[in-house]
Fold this protein.
Amino acid sequence: MYPTATELPVRAYDNVNDSTKNAQQDAILSPRFYTTDFAKIDALKIKTEHQQMWDDILAEFRRDPNKNHFKRNEEFDADLSAMDPELREQFIEFLVSSVTAEFSGCILYAEIKKRIKNPEVRELFGFMSRDEGRHAGFINHTLNDFDVAVDLSFLTKAKKYTFFQPKFIYYATYLSEKIGYARYVTIFRNFEKQPDKRFHPIFKWFENWCLDEFRHGEAFAVLMRSNPELLEGRNKLWIRFFLLAVFCTMYVRDHARAPFFKHMGIDVDDYDRRVITLTNQISRQVFPDTVDTESEAFWALMDRMWRNTDAMRKAEAAGGFFSKVKVVLLKGANALTFVQLYLRPPHRQALPADVRMQPVW
Ligand SMILES: [Fe+2]
Ligand SMILES: [Fe+2]
């Protein structure tokens, strides 16, 4: 009999371990506690033409198709002590950043649920929080197998709230759900092609798992399309800012972990191009302006951002006065690169009549 429930990563540990410390550092960049204008979330409406879609999504959430998916089997009993130490370290780092992202979603959605009144939107955030909690628990169970489970209680104890406008929450979470889908499905498909590279059973769970993320993104898509002022006028400039911010963050972080991707038989350049292009393409269900990922000039700028960041890391490690100057210059160069990315002509299109998409990738 295998444990069917996975524990949420919030139990208190006597000593803060390295994984928890890394999660704390990760959390500086990831969503922590947000406060927002909850009245605005309550005022969200569903257009009559989208009502059926909305009802279908909520029915799917109630049916809970992945209810029995996150159960471990005998494959998880494998002896992990034989794992290559370098791979072990990289894998743990990957799991820690994933558990932080999943759990941040869990608490953000739970917080919104707690603070709003609109019954249907409340119910939606409750379901999404349930799913993210399940994902975080499942990952933490694997970290526990390495004796490095993360105590994320610091995330729930955060005293400082960052104010974020509701529309920024919609853009950022919609994108992180869809990019989460694209990442999980791309890793899953890679291991289908080269199963000998699949060094841990958790990757077999990614196929159904990514459908949860896709569904979360669909719910945000319908909400935004039903409140079209979120997608018009000056908001289009914000949307493109969020698209680029999410893509640049992922590109730089993944490239810093290139050896881990190599272990999985993945070329990080190819992976990032696929995931970013797919996310950008999916986001056209809701965003009128997106990024032109067809252009090589776009990728050249992304690559420059990564190379600057890498040089910055090296200069920081070297220390000394000249390194400090170098870091300042490189930060400036990255800011300029971001502006150049932003000023590139966007891909423009009329929004499709049918909001919903199928996860066919
Ligand atoms: Fe998730
Ligand atoms: Fe999600």
Q: What stands out?
A: The mean pLDDT is 91. The pocket of fe (ii) ion (ligand 1) is lined by residues 102, 105, 132, 135, 212-213 (CB under 6 Å). DSSP finds 13 helices and four strands in the chain.
